[in-house]
Each structure stands twice: as structure tokens, then as C-alpha cells.
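Anyone opening a protein record will find just a pair of labelled lines. A complete record is shown below as an example:
=====
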Amino acid sequence: MTRFREEPQVLIIDDVLATRLLIRDMLAEMGISRVVDAADGIEALDVLHRVGSQLIICDLFMDDMHGGSLLSVVNKEIRLKNIPFIMMSATADAYMIKAALEMGAWDFLVKPLAFLDFRDRVFKVLRTRTAAKTVLSS
């Protein structure tokens, strides 16, 4: 288990409740218990404006506002644009993955999620975020 100076708050966005619960359980196994979730991008924006987040894990395909649209909005808002954003989808299309990364996603996960890969990639993003914050505040 990795220790955090300050435990990050993670926002999980997926229209499937079972997926949100699975990710919440995997984060708990990693020592991350500060988790909020949303069923779509519109609900996620409300959560981000009310409570913020240090990491966003978002499904690409959802009703109302899909992950790509949410990523665009997040990247345009000064208060939100530096939050690491991990996109995920059950579709492992190379073009979609490349497009999400070019739009500003920090990583792209393909469902079904394997715990060890998920853990390693989330920790990598969090370490990168911490290193970037340290450099910016120096």
C-alpha cells in the first residue's frame, strides 16, 4: 500500500453503478477512501464545482454528457484543468485512445479493469501529479 502525505480525493464517473462500486473497492484496496462518484458528466461537473477532486476516473461512453465532452469542459476551466483525468472504456480502439490522450487525458484504461494494472497506473498518475505540483510551487 502506498502512503500519501494527503490522501487524494478521487471522482469516479460511470453510468454503470457496478463499475463505480468496483473502482471504489479497488481504490479502497489501494488505501484511497476519499471517493465520490457521478453517473454522467453533468453530475460530475456539479461534484467538481462543489467539492473538487485530485483525480478524475471517467468512462468515455455515457448518456447526457460523455467523457470526451467532460474532458473538454474540464480542460477549459481554470480551477479544474490541472486535475489528472484518466479516461476508460470497454472499447480498445487505438484511434479513440489516441484521441483521448491528445485531448488531455493523462491515461486511458480498457475495461474490464485488472486490479494490478489499475493500481499501477493510478499510482503513476498520482505520482506525476505530485511531482508536477512540487515543480510548480518551487
